[in-house]
Amino acid sequence: MGKKFVYLFSEGNGSMKELLGGKGANLAEMTNLGMPVPQGFTVTTEACVKYYEDGEKLSDELRDEIIQYVKALEKITEKSFGCPKNPLLVSVRSGARASMPGMMDTILNLGLNDEVAEGLAKLVGNERFAYDSYRRFIQMFSDVVMEIPKSNFEKLIDELKKEKGVNLDTELGAEDMKALAARFKDYYKKTKGTSFPTDPTEQLIEAVKAVFRSWNNPRAIVYRRMNDIPSSWGTAVNVQSMVYGNMGNTSGTGVAFTRDPSTGEKRLYGEFLMNAQGEDVVAGIRTPQPISALEQVMPEAYNSFVDISQKLEKHYRDMQDMEFTIENGKLYMLQTRNGKRTAAADLKIAVDLVEEGMLTTDEALLKVEPKQLDSLLHPQFDPASLKTANKIAKGLNASPGAAYGKVYFTAEDAKSAAARGEKVVLVRLETSPEDIEGMVAAEGILTVRGGMTSHAAVVARGMGRCCVAGCGDIAMHEEGKYCIVKDVRINEGDFISIDGSTGYVYLGAVKTVEASISGYFELFMKWADEKRVLKVRANADSPKDAKQAVRFGAEGIGLCRTEHMFFEADRIAAMREMIVSDTIEQRVKALDKLLPMQRGDFEGIFTEMNGLPVTIRLLDPPLHEFLPTADDEINALAAEMKIDVIKLREKIASLHEFNPMMGHRGCRLAVSFPEIARMQTRAIIEAALNVKAKGINVIPEIMIPLICDVNELKYVKSVIKQTADDVITSSSSSLEYKIGTMIEIPRAAITADEIAAEAEFFSFGTNDLTQMTFGFSRDDAGKFLEDYYDKKIFESDPFARLDRNGVGKLVKIAANAGKSTRPDIKLGICGEHGGDPSSVEFCHEIGLSYVSCSPFRVPIARLAAAQAAIKQR
Amino acid sequence: MGKKFVYLFSEGNGSMKELLGGKGANLAEMTNLGMPVPQGFTVTTEACVKYYEDGEKLSDELRDEIIQYVKALEKITEKSFGCPKNPLLVSVRSGARASMPGMMDTILNLGLNDEVAEGLAKLVGNERFAYDSYRRFIQMFSDVVMEIPKSNFEKLIDELKKEKGVNLDTELGAEDMKALAARFKDYYKKTKGTSFPTDPTEQLIEAVKAVFRSWNNPRAIVYRRMNDIPSSWGTAVNVQSMVYGNMGNTSGTGVAFTRDPSTGEKRLYGEFLMNAQGEDVVAGIRTPQPISALEQVMPEAYNSFVDISQKLEKHYRDMQDMEFTIENGKLYMLQTRNGKRTAAADLKIAVDLVEEGMLTTDEALLKVEPKQLDSLLHPQFDPASLKTANKIAKGLNASPGAAYGKVYFTAEDAKSAAARGEKVVLVRLETSPEDIEGMVAAEGILTVRGGMTSHAAVVARGMGRCCVAGCGDIAMHEEGKYCIVKDVRINEGDFISIDGSTGYVYLGAVKTVEASISGYFELFMKWADEKRVLKVRANADSPKDAKQAVRFGAEGIGLCRTEHMFFEADRIAAMREMIVSDTIEQRVKALDKLLPMQRGDFEGIFTEMNGLPVTIRLLDPPLHEFLPTADDEINALAAEMKIDVIKLREKIASLHEFNPMMGHRGCRLAVSFPEIARMQTRAIIEAALNVKAKGINVIPEIMIPLICDVNELKYVKSVIKQTADDVITSSSSSLEYKIGTMIEIPRAAITADEIAAEAEFFSFGTNDLTQMTFGFSRDDAGKFLEDYYDKKIFESDPFARLDRNGVGKLVKIAANAGKSTRPDIKLGICGEHGGDPSSVEFCHEIGLSYVSCSPFRVPIARLAAAQAAIKQR
Fold it and tell me: Looking at this predicted complex, what is its ipTM?
């Protein structure tokens, strides 16, 4: 016999997520716990993998197995597929190992055809219900399985409403629904050339295939990439007997969390809609009632739900996100899963669960997704500015944080505006999975319809974007690219501000300020710091950044880029003078002007860091980056510098490079113009001496970028050492300093043993190392990497997540080689990977000393480092 | 006691080249053989290295040791430093491990001062000789040690000649020479502020230091880089008691080879000048007599020299290049070394020495420098064109081969013209080491003065440039940038042609044809082929190249670049149409036009290769390389293609890349546009089937460039395989083909085990691999690599000579990893390193299957592979 590809709910359990998907495993677990779950079966993720291996074909064996399980389900439910007298109807839902809300497709009411619909009407004594279910099924099946857009059917509904002279769907009666079902089937036949399938088994097989296919729809691919979910996992399919929340006023459906997903507060939190099917709540079409109201309406069902929800939370030892349906007063659980929540709620819940004795601190630390912390650190509105801000509307506080930006009304427009560098607020009637890229691009999201569990709210919280949902005051005119809020017209490109913590919407841009960090956050991070081994530093180029970094818990600066200092208005002139110099003397003269400014910067940074280590990288970018490119700017520069414009043009032309990324930059500049390194060294050492004189212990770490050969390092090191020692000697003081290098070129990694003999520390520059190891120019790769994701050649962006297999291997080789010649070498990483949890874990595993990342990512790195340490034990 | 830094000639021997330098070791060896060598001592190369380690200082210990050896030399020669009655005079010459002719400095007659000069005059009874020697010494010492240009002294000579109303130096008498010495000393004092040093010991110490310094003069650095000589070696200094060829008509000096260095013919070959010092011959100031003439003039000395030269050749088992001086009829040997020779001579001598029983074939193969073979393969004049060519002059046939080019009169002008892409003939009065870069840039060299052993002749032969020397028919007007040959005026930029094998000079550009390969060459290469393990293929993109490659012994094509085929006039239009396509359909339509052309190319290549393997690389460069950049060209293209010019500009702009080297190229194109790979595969397979139908066995090897991840390879391979199998199936014939990949990205090397699972062969693209491993853009690195050589960070160009330590390590890792998953994987290299002997040796050592290089370098690679195999045994 072959592998088992289908499991009854009663055959599985909660630990079988890999095989049954999250939803399937939890349905099995609830079944085992004796909870009221409509029974069904799960087609495994392995079946999906096989479907793709077989060239997107469903094997005869699998088909037979599914049919066999339909029979088993018929036995359990005592209903029968296609039997008008007692029909089995099922829902068909995807369910991957990781939750991918709304990313894949669902079909309800499967099993209906003309006879069954008629039978159902008689059985429940509700013809309108039966035919409404039928027409919905035709619509969903056509959309999901046959790719006929839902909206085409909506048009048919609109036509019928016009004929009938009514406005609302609810005004359509039983006969109308019956007519609609007929018109839908006609439309289907016209479009597809074949009749709508009437055999429930055929319907089911096609639906299963459609769910498998939906694993690779573009939305799902984007979502997986964003969430690091491998495409090899596949999705399971859950086939579950239907229960109906839309059978009248003793029926309903809802979703609820065991704790408040916004704040983490311990209280049942959710919404329900009477006389509705599940999708109605999530889709945000009608605005639902709070869950607490259910206590009045149906106390028995409510109490039963409260009881179950508590049991589930204890059982899973985590806040649960549950879906339920009440059919004629009887409660059914349709789903439970660990609930998505805001970062603030996540921390509070983790800390509370420890205090409630449900979790150990290790477990609590592992529960929190480090990337979430980011949103805690993001700005709130400046209270002063808020006082005078023009409040124009209020919606639901769906995802906390404050943002302002230019209004765009489509995901596409938002995406391209953000690509142009604009801050964007995406305003939509309601969002759908198609909008995902626009939501990523936006600072904040504002919707007209939908509740706290609508798509916009759930996704925004997951991404840490602020979101105001269900703001009914807005009248959308999407096609005209404007909206009207009360009597204010807001055009595309106008500024608005939204506060996802309060739900308020403001006209214009309201100033934001940084978040404050304390309470749960502080306690939680203290736990993390106790567990981790890896040090966390920040990349900071100014005293302001340095201050921010310390505030977020940085234990030093791992990368201080000196070039940013040169772009300031008062410095760029001297910098340009330096670059266009023809002789060393001219160059030194210009550098002498820059010296006091650099020294000042370093003094500020050393003072802020108050004794913590500071690694300063010498000038790195190619010099042409400092020169103007536009004609008028070049003319102006020539005039300002009193040099011949033709000569200046020649100079600029001579600095042009075909591949600047691999050009005259990094230590190559110091080799050609050692006087630059001399000036920078002098500024660093003088600043350190000055700050040391004030009683702060400074041990500057001078870092040489872009080394590819130990001889380069020897040369530049000798230039630095000579200057530093001269400055120290003539100060008649003393100062310790270190000289080290970036490892960011493959050859440096390969020859790291030789390089370590000359370097006191290595800092892995994984941005450049990724570029050169892959041969990808980061500025250009975006264009073709889309094709790589589409064709599943790559699953994650190697610039965001360290490529362990290639770049990581080089880092590991270099770390070991470095230790072989200098056992006490300090090893760090300062690429953007330093703030990526998966990459931090890797750095821990291979025994680096520290990671360095942007200040806002420092808490993420601290938690990721703690998790890595806990996992390794 | 410390290390011994000085050796008497009698203390050394011929095997001590590393310590004593080539010249010093050979002087010691000749001393041991009992040959008449003026005695002296050698300051070792280690002393030079120490001099640099000590910060360019000569230690007191070394100074003392040198003085001690002067005393020993005084004892041996029974002469005394600074003693007017019986003065010891010495020459001070550099002598590195490898011969660097004329690159470093020499001082003769050291030990003279006013008293000694007067004493010498009395001693030899020749006042003019004594003061001529004295003024020459002052001039040389001032130039070499104190950096006062020689020409400043020449001016003083000219002044005196004017005063005296004479034209030639020889017309100046003893008193004049005495006056000159005095004027020279005055000029020295005026320039330097101190008197000319009179203490012979001081003169000697300063001279030794100057020779050490000359190791790092710019000429020497360039020469070392060209010849792969490490700067760490240092030079030795030879201090030798003077003998005089300028003591009258029974004195003379000369240089000679034991065989003809142009042809290899076994006969004494050389020149001498009566009554002259050594430098006069080499400098080419007077035109000397052939060595055979010496037999009449001084038969005793001649016979003695013939005898010694035969002994030396037998002793060293190689053709010798000797310097001698006859002082008052007595022969002295000043130097012997293995003589430089043309490639043709090199081969003939190697083969002859084997036939004379002096060498084994292995020894003969190791004697020949593979790079030399290059010159054998270069063009000769087309006999037909030569008939009507306008012969205007004849000089010495100093270095064989034929060339035409535009005339330039300075090394600098020649260099910049060549950089502009012009073919250049460098025309000089005589060349000096300062001209070296101009000589490198030129196709050929023509000099007015100097003999077969003049600087121009020696260096040109070494480089394989053709050279006509001593062409006295030319009247130079360098300042006016023209010359007059008989009554023809030749301006800068005019074409001339020169034949280094005949010595003829022609006006205008005479057509050249390829060299013919046979005789010694064929026999020698047969020996090489018998020894080597490594296969040698060629890089060839057309049937013509393929034919050339086979002629030079290529055993297949290792790299056929398909993109060059697209640049031809009739194809570029279709190519551009393909690139600007918006849809797959448009693109396929354009590709369909290219298909028959590509197929034709491949048929031609397969036919030429007649069953030898052919590796074809799919399209590699970024598409924007095929589009025009100039405004008018873009407008023309838009008109021609009947598309909107604005749209075309947008398309071109969208293809712009910041770092095209790391951009959308190689297999990344095939991922985005699989239809291109499909068309190319179809062309290859159809061509192979067509050629196979004619009875030629073709197994095409399809190569995918720029792979960085196995998933890329899987994807593109599946595209190729599907197309290829479709074509083969529908042809109802059968065909074997292979699919492999370039390894040219660091990540591919690191993950080669995974990649080999999918690739039937690897070809290391060491050009790109060097770029990305170093992070050097080849197009840009030239600018800063000069600084790297100047500062001795790099000693050789990693693009010319494979960097074993970095790139080589990656190649080795990849080769081993590849074999680990596919033991029979075929491994080759197709970067330019494939024709570099040192790199070929490396490829042999790490067990690659073949190297592939340009057709002209195939013989070089064959010999280098043989040498590697012999050395490894």
Answer: 0.77
